[in-house]
């Protein structure tokens, strides 16, 4: 039976069925595309932004500890030493918390080899810093030597701080570049959709 021999109602039914099928296929493609866009947005929000937040806390902690050591040297006030050491420990605790959170985030991204390598460098620098910061705190303490402390800050603490902050900044840069690329992909996907 040809299309011309069909009744008007049969032709209309067939036409509407074809249009509905076409709309269903387009809707399926649109839903799939929106799902892909949603995955990219989730990656930006759940991973990249969270990583940046934790890295900022880590950066502030390292910088805060080094500024505190400098201030302890400049003040040379044995009475405030205990208070300064409490603040120093608070910075260390903030760093440890942020590091733990960042490590969990990175472990959920096995494909991020560049991030894992930079993070490993940061951990090595953190391990190295423990002894350096401990010695600096002892030298700046009530029984410490101000000249020796100043020399130690210049020769050991500042170079280590610079390396450590550079490693954190490197991971922040990688993260920013990935966020920017993902954001551009999302924007392009919305335009294409």
List keywords for this structure.
0% strand, mainly alpha, Four Helix Bundle (Hemerythrin (Met), subunit A)
Give structural notes.
By secondary structure, the chain is an all-alpha fold. The chain has one domain: Up-down Bundle (Four Helix Bundle (Hemerythrin (Met), subunit A)), CATH 1.20.120.1730. It has 4 helices and no strands. Helix 1 packs antiparallel against helix 2 (81-107), helix 2 packs antiparallel against helix 3 and helix 3 runs antiparallel to helix 4 (146-192). The longest helix has 68 residues, at 8-75. The protein is rod-shaped and about 105 Å long. The protein starts with 7 loop residues before the first helix and ends with a helix. The model has no long low-confidence stretch (mean pLDDT 86).
Low-confidence stretches: none
The CATH topology assignment is: Four Helix Bundle (Hemerythrin (Met), subunit A)
How far is the first residue's CA from the last residue's CA? 40 Å
Overall domain count: 1
Describe the global form: rod-shaped
- The total count of helices amounts to 4
The strand count comes to 0
CATH C-level name: Mainly Alpha
Order of helices and strands: HHHH
Which CATH architecture? Up-down Bundle
Class derived from helix and strand content: mainly alpha
Portion of residues in beta strands equals under 5%
What is the helix content?
over 70%
Average of pLDDT: 86
